[in-house]
């Protein structure tokens, strides 16, 4: 996987680089039956409006319980799926499932605004990507504005012209576009103003340092201010404490996500969560 990542960002792939060739092959073999064997499913993590404390959306997070190699987290198998091209089929599956589940969530809580779906840029190499997702949302009867597509900053940095055109096209169709893991990929400020995006997600590594690490505090503050000044909304990922939530709110961060509010839940638990009608979480 490291090969395809380009020049200067190997340090962020430690976790993935630690997979040896043997494991890589084992994962690859096992992954072939992930869809047909019904081994993939989605978890949903709530995203909160920090001001009103209301759930406004969920992020879909894929899970793989392999019959061959056991439970394997996305940080491990997504890179393999990308290397082998299997991410195209897996990504289609995730997209369709997330959209149809969101329709059901929305029936329970009308206030839900959108479903956030992680997209790998490798999916952009599929020349039918845009037409396929248009077809899926038409079939399911859900609007592009009800879908947020998350793309990590590392990928966006390496975008070629074709990738940028696809990004433009998706935005023009009305999808909400967000940059995931922001701050880890060194995108230039100039680049940032030109991207067709709506949301910036402050990487968890910065949130982790709040409040103890002053550098992380200042970086979070700067990212939120920059995002706001460019007219984007900001999401903070990985909020684990009340203190982090309060500080991020005071820094004008719009949306929060993290264990402090809610862990990723499977479909049944998400339905239960929504049925409790506890749309508004008391965080005091
Ligand atoms: P991500 O999109 O940045 O997702 C956030 C990750 O942080 C998730 O890990 C989530 O479970 C975890 N997280 C959320 N809140 C907290 C918290 O308060 N504390 C801690 N310690 N962790 C928290 P997960 O589900 O293991 O996913 C890891 C990464 O794998 C994702 O990062 C994303 O890049 C990728 N991924 C997950 N699902 C998909 C998918 O459906 N498609 C693609 N292409 N990538 C996916
Ligand atoms: Mg994400
Ligand atoms: Mg992230
Ligand atoms: Mg991440």
From TrEMBL:
<feature type="domain" description="EAL">
    <location>
        <begin position="24"/>
        <end position="278"/>
    </location>
</feature>
<protein>
    <submittedName>
        <fullName>EAL domain-containing protein</fullName>
    </submittedName>
</protein>
């Amino acid at each position: 996987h490291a090969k395809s990542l380009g020049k200067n960002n190997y340090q962020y792939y430690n976790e993935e680089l630690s997979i040896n060739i043997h494991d890589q092959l084992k994962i690859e073999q096992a992954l072939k039956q992930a869809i047909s064997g019904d081994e993939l499913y989605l978890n949903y993590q709530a995203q909160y409006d920090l001001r009103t404390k209301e759930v406004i959306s969920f992020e879909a997070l894929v899970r793989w319980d392999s019959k061959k190699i056991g439970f394997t987290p996305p940080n491990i198998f997504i890179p393999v799926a990308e290397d082998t091209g299997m991410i195209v089929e897996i990504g289609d599956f995730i997209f369709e499932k997330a959209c149809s589940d969101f329709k059901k969530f929305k029936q329970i809580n009308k206030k839900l605004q959108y479903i956030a779906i992680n997209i790998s840029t490798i999916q952009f190499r599929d020349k039918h990507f845009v037409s396929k997702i248009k077809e899926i949302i038409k079939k399911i009867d859900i609007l592009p504005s009800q879908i947020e597509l998350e793309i990590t900053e590392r990928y966006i940095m390496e975008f070629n012209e074709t990738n940028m055109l696809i990004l433009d096209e998706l935005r023009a169709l009305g999808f909400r576009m967000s940059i995931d893991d922001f701050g880890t990929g060194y995108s230039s400020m100039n680049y940032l103003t030109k991207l067709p995006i709506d949301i910036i997600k402050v990487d968890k590594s910065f949130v982790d340092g709040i409040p103890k690490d002053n550098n992380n505090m200042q970086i979070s503050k700067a990212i939120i201010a920059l995002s706001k000044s460019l007219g984007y909304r900001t999401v903070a990922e990985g909020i684990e404490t009340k203190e982090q939530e309060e500080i991020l709110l005071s820094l004008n961060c719009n949306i929060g996500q993290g264990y402090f509010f809610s862990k990723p839940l499977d479909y049944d638990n998400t339905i239960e969560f929504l049925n409790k009608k506890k749309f508004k979480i008391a965080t005091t």
